[in-house]
Amino acid sequence: MLSNLLNFSGGPGALPVSVLEQTRQAIIALPETGLSVLGMSHRSDWFKALLQEAQDNIRVLLGVPERYHILFLQGGSSLQFSMIPMNFAHRAAVPAEFVSSGYWSRKAVTEAAPVVPVRTVWDGYDEGFRRLPDWASLEHHPEAPFLHYISNETVEGLQFRDAPLPGPVPLIADMSSDFLSRPFDIGRYAMVYAHAQKNLGPAGVTLALIDDAMLSRIPGGLPPMLDYRTHVKHGSNYNTPPVFSIYVLNLVSRWLRDEIGGVDAIEQINARKAAALYGALERHVNLFEIHAEPEARSLMNVAFRLRDPALHDGFLAESRAAGFSGLEGHRSIGGLRASLYNAVGEPAVARLTELLDDFAARHG
Ligand SMILES: Cc1ncc(COP(=O)(O)O)c(C=O)c1O
């Protein structure tokens, strides 16, 4: 039997047990309304209050100033790959700039390219996406409409330690796989977005934080659903929003605030989890190979493989028999991956390191 507590999936993945328990109850009847959360109207006062609370919690957790709109969007992070250029680079004289540091940021370039001219300012593809660039080494056109990068490459397990220093080019980051895992300075960004299904809740909702100053760049004539101003104007309630996903997202934000103690606290926990797992992999360096170079290693996704491919299936079978799930690597690079999102506890990581030690004792 697989265990929720040992879910190392790349996403959708682990959610806090207390959130799952409240959600189970809410599917039958919300304590506040007596109705199932699945049947709550998006025009109800209850939902309006929920949207407000979820926004307020994100604002407080990350210290987001009022000049940033907090939007709850649909279409996943993938829709942002084309919506961002549509809104912010329409008819720009200079190409939009992209860092291509992994599977997902490469995809962002491919999906923006049919919409606007794009320029890749750094590409790690030929090196197999194992390291990240130095921000200082990149050259930008001062009139580029934006620079897009992904703070944490979910597939290859690469994570930027810092944001680039402020410059003339508006900075946009996809933080889908490390949002709320550590503090960051929102003031450096024109826009940050993250889908829910890693650290925030179930799939179905994507959070976008957009500096109000960016809205004046949006051209007229966009389809309303694809124009950020529609969602600002209607307070993320233009068409039917994913009520259930936002409900769970709000429970997760309360859990992070009240049970964990905020993003500074979770950052410490996440650092300990990652140190434990990388440490175990390094103890058995003859058996396991870590994908990322040390300076670029992600605290959220640990991508690794068995040096002997013949052991791969056996390792996964043993892990499943012990209740673990989600340890398969992404289909694009294969191997193994352990995702250490916020809801994966330290005891779960300890169990995983025991599994690695035990496997190594027999095969190392
Ligand atoms: C960093 C990152 N960006 C974008 C995506 C695509 O997200 P979605 O499936 O919500 O479109 C993923 C998927 O895992 C991701 O990890």
DSSP strand tally: 12
CATH class category of the largest domain? Alpha Beta
Question: What proportion strand?
Answer: 5-15%
Helix content: 25-40%
- Computed over alpha carbons, the radius of gyration is 21 Å
Overall geometric form: globular
Assembly context of the chains? single chain
Q: And the CATH topology of the largest domain?
A: Aspartate Aminotransferase, domain 2
Q: Give the helix/strand class.
A: alpha/beta
Task: Walk me through the topology.
Blueprint: H1 17-28, H2 45-62, E1 68-73, H3 76-88, E2 96-100, H4 103-112, E3 118-123, E4 147-150, E5 152-153, E6 158-159, E7 171-174, E8 191-195, E9 206-211, H5 228-233, H6 243-260, H7 263-283, E10 288-290, E11 301-306, H8 312-321, E12 336-339, H9 346-363
Parallel strand pairs: 2-3, 2-4, 4-7, 7-8
Antiparallel strand pairs: 1-9, 5-6, 8-9, 10-11, 11-12
The protein binds pyridoxal-5'-phosphate (PLP).
Pyridoxal-5'-phosphate (PLP) is lined by residues 11, 76-78, 104, 150, 154, 174, 176-177, 195.
